[in-house]
């Protein structure tokens, strides 16, 4: 998993906030800045972070709700839950 430094995060945080706000306006109020950051750290940039700042911003801005939900669905598949009753489905909507 790539290491995103505090400096890189500070530079990218406004863009993560912008994307979270966009998703919130689309009706997905449960998606927060940390969720967007986690999506990029654990999924989109799992193997490598784009080397240039403009490439990182481009990746953030072209991300759709469907991209994010692909990540959430994959996470749900590998999340160890003994029954569906234990899962909180409100986080997905």
TrEMBL record:
Cited InterPro entries: Post-transcriptional_regulator
Name of the protein in question: Post-transcriptional regulator
Native source species: Trichococcus collinsii
């Amino acid at each position: 998993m790539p290491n995103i430094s505090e400096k890189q995060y500070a530079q990218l945080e406004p863009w993560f906030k912008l994307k979270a706000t966009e998703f919130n306006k689309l009706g997905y109020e449960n998606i927060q800045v940390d969720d967007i950051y986690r999506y990029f750290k654990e999924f989109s940039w799992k193997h490598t972070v784009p080397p240039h700042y403009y490439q990182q911003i481009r990746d953030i801005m072209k991300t759709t709700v469907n991209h994010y939900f692909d990540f959430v669905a994959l996470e749900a598949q590998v999340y160890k839950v003994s029954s569906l009753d234990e899962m909180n489905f409100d986080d997905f909507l």
